[in-house]
Each structure stands twice: as structure tokens, then as C-alpha cells.
Specification:
The structure is a single chain. This protein is α/β, with parallel strands linked by helices and 312 residues long. It folds into two domains: 103 residues, Response regulator (Rossmann fold, 3-Layer(aba) Sandwich), CATH 3.40.50.2300; 156 residues, GAF domain (Beta-Lactamase). Helix 5 packs parallel to helix 9 and helix 6 runs antiparallel to helix 9. The strands form two sheets. A five-stranded parallel β-sheet has the order 2-1-3-4-5, sandwiched between helices. A five-stranded antiparallel β-sheet has the order 7-6-10-9-8. It is built from nine helices and ten strands.
Length: 312
């Protein structure tokens, strides 16, 4: 079963079992059952369900309101209260925990289904809004960085500007964190007179689980053809975005992803004065598809980098 996982916190075993069977019949997965708040927190930490059904009245030191408050703060998981009765003082406490709904016991199956679906939808929308806000904030930080760079003295006798690792981290890290990316790599394309274009990875940012590849010799002075990505070059030179996942790439195009230890990514061109300077890759350690809003943020980042590197 692949439906949303729901955790049940109910101190009456018969009621908990009945809820579990109802959830399964509605197409959900039962992520677990706990009869106390303390036990629930431990199990929720392990299973990380999509939603929690919380009995508002629980025996023990922590009642349902206390437990729901911790679930909200620690795990950002939506909570629906189950209650047979509640006085005003208890309901006022419950509101502070920002529940996603209430279901009165004995519950109606259709009502339970409707409240769960609305809660899951609301939480998903809120999550997307938070993610979009984080991306916009990261992009605005990148704009601020570009403005700061543009006020500095331009490099003498250099057609483009070089940055140290901390300079690049200022712009890449907020974007990487906002997108929950695995790694970001910047690659420079060098055109040697009379010879083939070569590519080198020159800057990098990675999440804690990513193993740095910046100094791998295989990622220095390679050609598009040697890595089987001549098709990428043709797309990048036209200004196109290259989305890729290792499971769908032709066998000959997997070398770069294998060297980086990533499973998917979005590759965008970096132009300086209308010429392809290089490209930036936003990579993930698992396969995922980026939304149009995310790709647009990545495009803005690539354009900002081109403007900063080529500023003089």
C-alpha cells in the first residue's frame, strides 16, 4: 500500500484498533499506534508519518495537547485531534498547537476521511509556500551579493572575475539549502586555440551527505565528448536547461553523475557577454524532478553568476 502514512495516538486499545482498520479501508497506511504522549514522540521520530491522529485526552504526564505541540515544533507533521468532549480551556490550549482539524468520537468514517484529506492538502500547500518563500529569500540574497560585488573595484587586466570559495558559498549555500539540494557545481569551459573545448569543475557546494569532488583529477580538463555529453553542449550553447536523472540517461552520459555521486540534476548555462562561459549544475543525491518555480530560481542564479563573473 502506498497511501499516506498516519500515526494513531489513542490510549484505548479497542478504539485505536478500530481506527487502524478504518484507515486501511480508506487506503491509508497505519504508521503505528501509541497509547501515551511520551511513547508517541519516540515512535513518530522513527516513522515520520504524513499525519497524526491525536486523542486529546491521554493518560500520563503529557496529554494530547502537549504531545501535539511537540509534534508540531519538532517534526512539522499535521495533527488532527480526536475527542469525545472538551471544555473551553482545553480547546483554547489545543488551538495554540495549530491543529489541522478535529474529529468527534464516535467518529463518522466519511467525516474522518474528509478531515484527513483536507489536512494533508493544507499541509502540502503550506509546505510549498514555505519552500517558495525560502527560494525567493535565497535569490534576493544572491541579488544583494551581486550588488555588493559590483561596487568593488574590478580586477585589473582580467577579462573575467575570479572568486574564492567563500565568495561563491555566499551565493550557492542559501540556494542549496532552500532547494534541499545535494550539491551544486560550477564548471568552466575553456576554448583553446586550435584545440577542443575542455571543461573543469572550479567551484562546489555540498550538503553534509555529499562527498566533495572538487579535486578529482577526472573533473579537470575533460571534454564534452569524453564524458558523452556533447548533446548537453549543444543545448547549453542555445541557452536551454538540461534536466537529467541517472535512471533515464543514456549509458554514455552517466559518467559525470557517477563521478559526482549524484542521481539527478538540473544543468544551466552561464553566459558572459553572450558567450558560453560554463555551466552550473544543481544536483540531488536521489532522483527528483524540480518544479518550474525551482528551475526559474536556478536560472536566475545562473544569470547572476554570469553577471558577477563578467562584471568589470
Amino acid at each position: 500500500m502506498t497511501g499516506p502514512a498516519i500515526f494513531i495516538v489513542e490510549d484505548e486499545a479497542i478504539v485505536a484498533s478500530d481506527i487502524r482498520e478504518t484507515l486501511i479501508s480508506l487506503g491509508y497506511r497505519a504508521a503505528g499506534i501509541a497509547k501515551s504522549g511520551e511513547l508517541a514522540l519516540d515512535k513518530i521520530k522513527e516513522s515520520h508519518p504524513d499525519l497524526v491522529l491525536m486523542d486529546i485526552h491521554l493518560a500520563g504526564e503529557m496529554d494530547g495537547v502537549d504531545t501535539a505541540g511537540k509534534v508540531h515544533v519538532l517534526y512539522d507533521i499535521p495533527v488532527i485531534y480526536l475527542t469525545a468532549y472538551a471544555d473551553k480551556a482545553l480547546l483554547d490550549r489545543a488551538k495554540i498547537t495549530e491543529p489541522y482539524g478535529y474529529v468527534v468520537k464516535p467518529y463518522d468514517e466519511r467525516e474522518l476521511h474528509s478531515v484527513i484529506e483536507m489536512a494533508l492538502y493544507k499541509h502540502r500547500v503550506e509546505h510549498e509556500i514555505k519552500k517558495r518563500d525560502a527560494i525567493l529569500f535565497a535569490v534576493s540574497s544572491a541579488v544583494e551579493w551581486l550588488l555588493r560585488v559590483s561596487r568593488e573595484d574590478p580586477p585589473a587586466n582580467h577579462p573575467v572575475r575570479d572568486f574564492n570559495a567563500s565568495d561563491i558559498r555566499d551565493i550557492l549555500e542559501p540556494i542549496g539549502l532552500a532547494l534541499d539540494a545535494g550539491a551544486i557545481g560550477i564548471f568552466r569551459v575553456n576554448a583553446e586555440p586550435g584545440g577542443p573545448e575542455t571543461v573543469s569543475m572550479i567551484y562546489e557546494w555540498g550538503c553534509p551527505s555529499y562527498h566533495s569532488c572538487l579535486f578529482k583529477p577526472e573533473l579537470k580538463q575533460f571534454t564534452f565528448g569524453a564524458f558523452g555529453i556533447s548533446r548537453w553542449h549543444d543545448l547549453l550553447i542555445k541557452g536551454d536547461v538540461v534536466p537529467a536523472a541517472i535512471s533515464t540517461l543514456p549509458e554514455g552520459e552517466k559518467k559525470l553523475f557517477s563521478l559526482l555521486g549524484v542521481r539527478s540534476g538540473v544543468i544551466l548555462p552561464i553566459f558572459i557577454r553572450d558567450s558560453l562561459w560554463g555551466f552550473i549544475g544543481f544536483f540531488d543525491l536521489t532522483e527528483r524532478v524540480r518544479s518550474p518555480d525551482e528551475v526559474e530560481a536556478l536560472r536566475i542564479t545562473a544569470n547572476l553568476l554570469g553577471a558577477a563573473i563578467g562584471y568589470r
